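Quick bug: Protein like cov 2 output formatted oddly.
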Amino acid sequence: MAEEKESTSIPLSQAENGGEDPEDPVKSPPTSSASSTRQACCYVLQSWISKKFMTGCVVLFPVAVTFFITWWFVQFVDGFFSPLYEHLGFDIFGLGFITSLVFVFLVGVFVSSWLGSTVFWVGEWFIKRMPFVRHLYSASKQISAAISPGYLLINQNTTAFKEVAIIRHPRVGEYAFGFITSTVTLQKDNGDEELCSVFVPTNHLYIGDIFLVSSKEIIRPNLSIREGIEIIVSGGMTMPQVISPIERVARQGERIPLNRIM
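Here's what came back:
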């Protein structure tokens, strides 16, 4: 009788829980699927919101940068003549900007004439005699002459980019865009060799490296100076899909009349 009482005895904790063991996975009630569904929906919604937010940032970032730079440029140029109009009693935003553009245009017209070029030459002569200013002026003038070929009409002796060049740099199988600025003759024991001074920009067009490359090893593509500048400034985004050397384009141009005659 004692053994039967021990076998039928139930612990007090299990008796309060109705005789069920909460740690037994078989006897515990199944988890609700509503919580897992809610978590999955929250994850999908969060992922969708983050993607759309990043898409909006990508779209608005170049617009904001363009607007900011344009607004800063308008205010900067407008600040040259706007104090004069405010002194005269005209407080119209943008009037100084329009006046600055007209002033730059008139300066271009004046310098293009014989009298303007003479005055410009005299002013340039004085600037080149200044100790520190002449270096800044020479560097900025070369950059302006390289970017704007029309500037060469003022001074025919200005050194600018001659041609677009492609050189093998820095390793075999890799190429770099550059501009031919001048040519030099290297005197050696076995004969003279013609070298080209190639400027390879490393920071847009203001900073770069100078390489002396043999004329035979330079690839001259069928690209103008302006197209080469656009490729470098845009980071290669305006790169054409096909680039052909000038020699190949010339040979193809010579074959066309022969085919037409045949």
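Actually, after a second look the formatting is fine. The longest strand covers residues 175-188. Closing.
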